[in-house]
Amino acid sequence: MNDIRTFGVVIAEARKALGISQKEVAALIHKEDGSSISPQYLNDIERDRRNAPSKHLILELARVLKLQPDYLFALAEAWPKDIVETMGRASPAEVERAFTAFRRTLKAHR
């Protein structure tokens, strides 16, 4: 059994846990221009038929579905802005140490 949870699976599980429909969630997720996403777009995300959405929409999904944004960023293979800025100021050795510590932490919790 594959126990790796994808971005879409996590979104679908969170929505279902809250007992709300795709249509209801889609109406609450606002794009940068203020308009809502479509239920079909959300369906495609949940079924992993699309690449992960923009950072803005990841934050919106986290807000509406009561999820940790950093977890969603990790699943989406996206970097939060503050991490990108910090890495840009760090040396290659500092970044490598951070990744080593991150991997060690995750392995310790398996």
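^ that was protein a. below is b, sequence first then the tokens
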Amino acid sequence: MKIFIICSVRNATNEYKVKLEKYVKFLEEDGYEVHLPHRDTNQDETGLNICQQNKNAIIESDEVHLFYNSNSQGTHFDLGVSFAANKKIKIIENEKFDSGKSFARMIQEWENRA
């Protein structure tokens, strides 16, 4: 099974990247094929080319795993592609939300839909 990791890249700290890489290592040791953007997407490309690479990897994936950060524009882009492609989503980290409408609540509803 192929998994795409949706996460922050541009402002990611080394600590955050280590956390992501540990999660990916766990998946890969279980036999999953994983696309981790800061590792597997050419970050030296233009923004458009980065989005194209991620779009292609998302479409080729069986599901997406999400480390949600509402401040990450790339996260929202990748979520939009995933939603349009009707991908199964698994939330690894989410932000707290209250009873009102929010993106964090929507992705929880999306995950529960499956």
